[in-house]
Design brief:
The structure holds two protein chains of two kinds.
Chain A (H helix, E strand, L loop, with lengths): L22 E3 L2 E3 L3 H19 L9 H20 L8 H18 L17 H23 L17 H45 L4 H45 L3
Antiparallel strand pairs in A: 1-2
Helix pairs in contact in A: 1-3, 2-3, 2-6, 3-6, 4-5, 4-6, 5-6
Chain B lengths: L1 H4 L8 H134 L5 H13 L1
Helix pairs in contact in B: 2-3
Classes of the chains: A mainly alpha, B mainly alpha.
GO molecular function (chain A): proton-transporting ATP synthase activity, rotational mechanism
Keywords (chain A): ATP synthesis, Cell membrane, CF(0), Hydrogen ion transport, Ion transport, Membrane, Transmembrane, Transmembrane helix, Transport
Subcellular location (chain A): Cell membrane; Membrane
């Protein structure tokens, strides 16, 4: 790296590279990529984590208590936002929350030290967008299935004066249609921005120590490294918060569909 | 930016991304969301129910203990009241007995006293009579010795009576 200082590409970490195992599906070639690998790793890690909570003891051990903390967190959120009917949707929201959380956290692992390239699955809008679209589709299906065409009254908030309806309804409609984009974009942007920032700062650290005026470069490196420690901690927080926000907004949107007004 | 680039039409990995995402997420949903989560929630629910039941049982036992204590208290109070009544009865009876005996003794003493008073009165009367006769004799002797005159017994008696009785 020393020879090519200044050429550290902060976007390189988002590159998808094929790892083999290609087959054809409906005219598209499906390859097993590093992105797919990290999804599978997240799924396996999540499976192991959940398996540790399956001992079903009356008095939980540490691991079981941790798993039950997560499940209780999501089910109480569903209960608070939707009510008893929310239990039906808990498996989906829990899967969503845990998958996003594990992908976020696994992407933060300092595996670069071991020469591996961690890949943050949730830093791709294609992934977060699809997850957001699944949530949006659930809202639409549940809404129209439960309320029929009456679901359109979602665009007229309760107590709107009659003359205001022609103005309010389009605004509500647009805000409703923007939901999947904002939902997917928020997670994608938060993850991408954090990882780019960390990569840029780590580039400063490397380039600083390779600088020709070493004393100045060292100061830059040390300062950047200190900043990186703080930002890494912040990114761990963001990883949890973004997963929570995604699950929370999904539960709120499902609530709109379940309890119309 | 690879994330945006994959959304363009001719990109080799968009299909792979979506395929693997759907496979992995469906797997997580089925195995973890539908398989493991309900079991863990059932465990939590069972524990919550057990805690609630135990608390209810403890509350019931507490109430039973309170009732038992109350009945003990009432029993104790009743027996104490009975004991106090018995003591009061015994005291009253003893007081009445003592009064009765005292009254009897009083009467006896009164009788004795009046008898003794009658005796004293009689003794006094006889003593007074004796004193009178002695005084009459002494007075007639004194008169005889002093003047040599003989006084009739009846006169002396009258004079003595006059002096004694004023």
């Amino acid at each position: 790296m020393a020879a090519e200082s200044g050429k550290i590409d902060p976007m390189h970490q988002f590159e998808v590279t094929p790892l083999g195992g290609g087959f054809n599906l409906g005219g598209h070639e499906i390859l097993f990529t590093n992105s797919a690998l990290w999804m599978v790793v997240a799924a396996i890690a999540l499976g192991i984590f959940m398996w540790g909570g399956m001992r079903r003891q009356l008095i939980p051990g540490r691991w079981q208590a941790a798993v039950e903390g997560f499940t209780g967190f999501i089910s109480s959120m569903m209960m608070a936002n939707i009510g008893t009917e929310g239990r039906k949707y808990t498996p989906y929201v829990f899967s969503l929350f845990m998958f996003i959380l594990f992908c976020n956290l696994l992407g933060m692992l300092p595996l670069g030290v071991l020469g591996l390239h961690p890949f943050t699955v949730t830093s791709h809008i294609a992934i977060t967008g699809v997850l957001a679209l699944i949530s949006f589709a659930i809202v639409l299906v549940v809404g129209f299935w439960r309320h029929g065409l009456h679901f359109f009254s979602l665009f007229v908030p309760h107590g709107t004066p009659l003359p205001m309806i022609p103005i309010i309804a389009p605004i509500e409609f647009v805000s409703f249609m923007v939901r999947p984009f904002s939902l997917g974009l928020r997670l994608f942007v938060a993850m991408t921005a954090g990882h780019v920032l960390l990569k840029v700062l780590s580039g400063f650290v490397i380039n600083g120590f390779n600088a020709e005026t070493l004393w100045l470069g060292s100061i830059v490196s040390v300062l950047s490294f200190t900043l990186m420690i703080g930002i890494s901690a912040l990114e761990l927080l963001v990883a949890g918060i973004q997963a929570y926000v995604f699950a929370l907004l999904t539960s709120l949107y499902i609530n709109d569909a379940v309890n119309l007004h | 930016m690879p994330q945006i680039a994959q959304l363009t039409a001719d990109n080799w990995y968009l299909a792979s991304q979506l395929f693997w995402l759907l496979v992995v997420f469906a797997g997580i949903y089925v195995v973890i969301g539908r398989g493991m989560l309900p079991k863990i929630e059932a465990t939590v629910d069972a524990r919550d129910r057990k805690v609630a039941d135990d608390l209810a049982a403890a509350k019931a036992a507490h109430a039973a203990a309170d009732a038992l204590e109350e009945s003990y208290r009432q029993q104790t109070e009743a027996s104490r009241a009975a004991a106090q009544k018995a003591v009061a009865d015994a005291k009253g009876k003893a007081a009445r007995d003592a009064e009765k005996r005292l009254a009897k003794v009083d009467v006896e003493l009164g009788e004795k006293l009046s008898l003794a008073e009658a005796d004293i009165a009689a003794a006094r009367k006889s003593a007074m009579a004796e004193i009178e006769s002695v005084a009459v004799e002494a007075a007639s002797d004194l008169v005889a010795k002093l003047s040599g005159a003989k006084v009739a017994a009846a006169d002396a008696k009258a004079a003595v009576k006059a002096v004694l009785h004023g």
